[in-house]
Design a protein that fits this description.
Blueprint lengths: L24 H10 L5 H19 L16 H39 L11 H9 L3 H17 L1 H8 L5 H10 L5 H13 L9 H15 L4 H10 L2 E6 L5 E7 L1 H20 L6 H14 L13 E6 L4
Parallel strand pairs: 2-3
Antiparallel strand pairs: 1-2
Helix pairs in contact: 2-3, 3-5, 3-6, 4-5, 5-7, 6-8, 7-9, 11-12
């Protein structure tokens, strides 16, 4: 069995025994695609994917030289391939978003034709999209909501994603952060993203989300109270099981409550350390929180089955 990476097998073609083979894999694959017996819409989709692939590897902006301008088997070639793949990933995400929205529309239309009540038309779209994309219904719902926002309300951001100039993670961050913003605010931020290439340059998800939230605050100062009240209503606590009998508890609280809680836990844990308790301060903070909630009388130095307590201010959500 040949275990070489695909990138080292440029000279081999699957099915090379075909008498119609030209000896050039790219030409043969292009011929197969061209000869594909499919509907005009399907052929158009394949054409868009091929065009996106061509652009990703010939107009790669994240490296100095695109793939055709690099020497074979060089470091520059490898970097150009990585850059091209990332550009292509963005373009394919834009195509996927378009078809997610289209699928939702088609499912709603089918429900309407079948006489389903208006209140339930399209309700199963997220589940159907999840099955097609092999993700959970919850993940599909979030993806579908982001796709709908990008395609319908953020044309500039969507265009940059389609061109491969915007990483997928940044597009998702923009779409999710603007979920509750006014249409005018979305339009203003979308225009800035499309006109200023440096606005998103080098920003991680947290920094980008913070910048966008600050812009929303500036553009919608009159809605500050409404946003705070809506965010407060979303406070919650969740638990995620971990390995080895542990679990992670996440709490989303009001900022002032979170700050007070963490300060109290840290102060108490440091006092215990000063009194001679050997556990680390983070472990003691977790024990103290469990003891306070469960009203334990046991010494907090006793180990508990909580590995980490992470408290986030609502302004980070």
């Amino acid at each position: 069995m040949d275990e070489r990476p695909a990138g080292d097998q440029h000279d081999e073609e699957p099915g090379s025994g075909d008498a119609a083979s030209s000896g050039d894999l790219l030409c043969d694959i292009a011929a197969h695609v061209t000869a594909l017996d499919a509907s005009p819409g399907a052929r158009t989709l394949l054409a868009e994917i091929l065009a996106a692939t061509l652009q990703a590897f010939t107009r790669t902006t994240s490296v100095r030289d695109p793939l055709p301008a690099t020497a074979p088997h060089s470091a520059e070639e490898s970097l150009a391939i990585l850059g091209g793949l990332d550009h292509l990933r963005s373009s394919l995400a834009a195509i996927e978003a378009t078809w997610q929205v289209r699928a939702e529309q088609k499912i709603r239309e089918a429900d309407r034709r079948e006489g389903a009540p208006a209140s339930v038309q399209g309700k199963g779209a997220a589940s159907e999209v999840g099955i097609a994309g092999r993700v959970s219904p919850a993940s599909a719902s979030f993806s579908l909501a982001s796709a709908r926002r990008l395609v319908q309300h953020l044309p500039g951001t969507f265009g940059r994603l389609w061109d491969g100039r915007l990483p997928v993670r940044q597009a998702v961050t923009v779409a999710s952060t603007l979920a509750t913003a006014d249409p005018e605010t979305c339009a203003a931020i979308d225009k800035m993203i499309s006109e200023d290439p440096l606005f998103l340059a080098g920003k991680g998800d947290r920094q980008l989300r913070s910048d966008l939230q600050r812009m929303i605050q500036q553009l919608e100062p009159e809605r500050s109270r409404d946003r705070a009240e809506r965010a407060a209503r979303a406070r919650h606590v969740t638990m995620t099981p971990l390995a080895d009998g542990m679990a992670r508890v996440n709490a989303v609280l009001r900022g002032v409550d979170a700050a007070g809680l963490m300060k109290s836990l840290q102060r108490s844990a440091e006092s215990l350390r000063a009194a001679g308790v050997k556990h680390s301060v983070p472990a003691l903070e977790a024990d103290l929180l469990v003891g306070a909630v469960l009203e334990r009388s046991d010494p907090p130095s006793r180990g508990c089955f909580i590995s980490c307590v992470r408290v986030r201010s609502l302004t980070e959500v």
